[in-house]
Amino acid sequence: MHSVVNKIITDISRVILDKEHEIKLSLTCIFSKGHLLIEDLPGMGKTTLSHTLSLVLGLNYKRVQFTSDLLPSDILGTNIFNAKDHTFTFHKGPVFTQVLLADEINRAGPKTQSALLEAMEEKQVTVDGHKYSLPTPFFVIATQNPLNQSGTFALPESQLDRFFMRISLGYPSKEAEKKLIMGTGKTDVSDISCQINADDLSLIQQEIEQVILSVPVINYILDLVNATRKETIFATPLSPRASIALTKAAKAWAYIEGRNYVTPNDVQIVFPYVSEHRLGLHNKADKIQLTNLISTVAVPV
After folding, report:
1. Which domains does the chain have, with CATH numbers?
2. Measuring CA to CA, how many Å separate 74 from each of 15, 41, 226?
3. Mean pLDDT of residues grouped by 10 in the chain (301 residues)?
């Protein structure tokens, strides 16, 4: 299945120009069965990337625009009374899909944000005491605007920790933006076709689980995680969940790069994207602190 991965990256790159690294990170997250948080300014292509990923991977897709008046039932669904037979019927909400785009998730209040917690962690939702299983696979791709923008509510640490990775697309290169302005060299999302299906995705995930992780690399991961626990600059050091996520991400990145073994460089590449949101890092100065920490941890040879 690895040969298909390059085709997937190429197809997405036809829509999201000049962002191959971010596309690989997005696939790393999904191949690791994780949820993705994309944080950036409006108009940077966050929603387009989410939709394109679902199309190329052949997964069902629904989008919810988060606003201040959005209710949990608008996401999960609700029981509606049938006056004819005096029974309640559960009407499923948009969360019952394979890929849910929670667009501008931090524009909704904490109660609505937390409606996704059970879905993200347990792949099910509970409404009026009844549990309902979600489709397989199930991914949440959430976008959020910078917290300094008006009308935003910061995600709580418990919910940030449910996101496997956080990425940012950033500004396009001058050449890529020129193509966007001229309308050349970019494929429309509607012209993208699926390259795999849910069964193929499951096969890729199984192959990634077989990627070799040596003991020195495992120890390197543990050293990085423990370094965040010793430094007082991090208010929320990395938990064992983060250690597991870092391991899975490194294996998925190695697989995307065409290898069946993980190197310390793979760990270094994915480490910021797995850890920054868990450590509560947002500004450039905070991220420099993380870079300095990585440089202090001995790399196995």
Report:
1. 1-183 (3.40.50.300), 210-301 (1.10.8.80)
2. 30, 25, 40
3. 86 91 96 94 88 93 92 90 80 94 88 86 89 94 79 80 93 88 80 88 95 96 92 81 96 96 96 91 76 88 77
